[in-house]
Amino acid sequence: ISETDTPSNSLAEEQREAPLDVGVQGPQPSASVSPSLRPVSVRISRASTVSSMSLCAAVGPVATATTAPAASGADAESEDGVHPSTQPRKRASTTGTRLALWEREEAEKHSLEQQRAQRIAALDVQRQNEAVAAEERQAAWKRSEDERLEGERRQFLAKEAEREAANLKLAEENRQMFAQQEEDMAAEQAKLDEERRRQVQLKKEREAPKVLLGDADEFSYHLQAGMAEKVKAFRRKGRGGDTLIMQIKHELNELQIEEAATGMSLEDLADRLEDFALVGQPRYVLHIHEFAHKDGRVSYPIAFVMFMPENIPVQLKVLYTRPVSKLCETFSVNKHFALDDPESLDQEWLEVQLGLRSA
Question: Are residues 255 and 306 in the same domain?
Answer without folding.
Answer: yes
